[in-house]
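<context>
A single protein, sequence plus fold
<entry> Chain with its tokenised backbone below
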Amino acid sequence: MQTYFLDDQTFAQFRAYIYDLTGIDYTESKRYLLDTRVRRRARETNMDDGPSYLNFLQTSAENQSEIDLLIDQVSTHETSFFRHTNQIAIFEKIIDEIIDERRMAGNKRIKIWSAACSTGEEPYTLAMVVREKLGGETGWDISIEGTDISSGSIAQARRGRFSERNVRSTPEPYLSKYFRQDKDPRFYTLTPDMANSVKFEAISLIDNAQTNARRDFDIVFCRNVLIYFDDVAKKKVLEMLWKSLVPGGHLVLGTSDSLHGLTDSFQRTQHSVFNFFLRAPDSTVPNTAAAATQGTTPTARAVEAAPSLPPPSALDNSQSLQLKILIERLDRGIRDLSEDLNNSLGKTIDAVSTVTTTLETLVQNENLDPKSRAELRGADRQLMRILLFLQVGDRTQQKTEALRATLQELSDNLLGAEKEAPDLQVSITSFDKNLLPQDDEESDDEDDDGTMSQDDIDALFN
């Protein structure tokens, strides 16, 4: 049985404390993460137990620096340049459109906000893309802001120095144009001009005093943040993000984030399968009523339903065949998704958590030489990153979205508007159908023993 540093009562107290500070909700399934991170900070402050450490945080007159360190520890920092290439490619298209529109209107101003920027890789990526799109054209007022709850991450972002791993996905000409390799070849530093192109600030997305002044953004990136909040915090943050956008502005969420049951304030677009959403051009107030009633008032679809098949009573043989193929694809896709979800994630999480606890114990051994201690800490960090990945499966989320889009198409084809086909609030016009197995595909998983090679592990963070 798992032994925790925090007993049940102290875990509940720390869970509430962290939630009030950050909006991050450490549910029971993530208890091992909070336990490990609090234990590390408690030992760094020479506290022997959780209650003593919590009391120190809540009562010490000199505790702000330690609170900042704890926030840095409990928040997630996994990031890299040009992460999620599909979303970056869509961003490039949208920026092209905005630039063309602003040129014609004589308004050469663009505002972009990376709302949970970690150590800065995301906003710097966006800055590079915008600069390449403008091609040296003068007269533009480009404002790119990066914010994060971790002051440590913001300090690192401002330094503009990154490991080889963080820049591994940076394509040319970006790498040679905007980076300089250090004397230590494992690190790269941004050129001064690029380092000064982003304004950074440490803020909490659930603190109204810190977010109220953020307005008139054309694009807001808030990727892989909502998954750590409960529904109350999610709704609050989404309403704040809606207010931060100009009418017609774009919201970009992480591939594992969802708006379902939270808000109807944003319109879906042709890119919504990759979590791009739009504040309606004519909207003046956020639409929170539907979210408050669990989405009982569906939002009108952003696109017309695809009436490729008439009602069943009028189907001929050819149309019946099309319907059968569609249903079979949906069934195959669901079975494939089920296999992904049933891949012993719970047992894997428990096993890795046990190993991290053992590693932490070994690191505390006073007889351990520095090199071995460093290697153990490195292994522990890698395991924690794998744990985070197990909590957030991009591939599974994308499959689910594609399946829902297929189900929406099936619903529209079977029932049609005249029979009030249910609106699943999912775009049916643009999703990656290759995520779903095709009729002529053979399973490529028959010889898969379920083990992960080092290449597999590295690929998780590409």
